[in-house]
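W.,

You were right to be curious about this one. When I first looked at the sequence I had no strong expectations either way, so I just let the prediction run and decided to look at it fresh. Below is the sequence, 110 residues in total, followed by the output.
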Amino acid sequence: MSVSASDKAFALELFGPLGEVTSRPMMGGLCLYASGAIFGILDSSGGIYLRAKGDFSEKLMAAGSRQFSYTSPKTGKTGRMGYWTLPDAALDDAEKACDWARQSLNASED
């Protein structure tokens, strides 16, 4: 399953105030980039996840975010990646969404 054109357009518009926001296909989803630096992913169901580690992942968790997980079709085991859902309060607010994305980009530089 792949990302719908409407979900892609929504994410690119939501993060548009960041400047040059682009995407690339990735295993049924999309990677989201701001000025060439990855800050998030969009999954095939339209879920938006931000790249996070350390203190920033804890901040996202405190805001109600959930960590990206998947089940391996070969082993049936669940794996997790360093991506967390965009907090619900930011899903319809470009200013809040871009603030979270900037924090993701800054946390990635550390």
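Here's what jumped out at me. The mean pLDDT is 92. And, maybe more interesting for your project: The longest strand covers residues 78-85.

Coffee later to discuss?

I.
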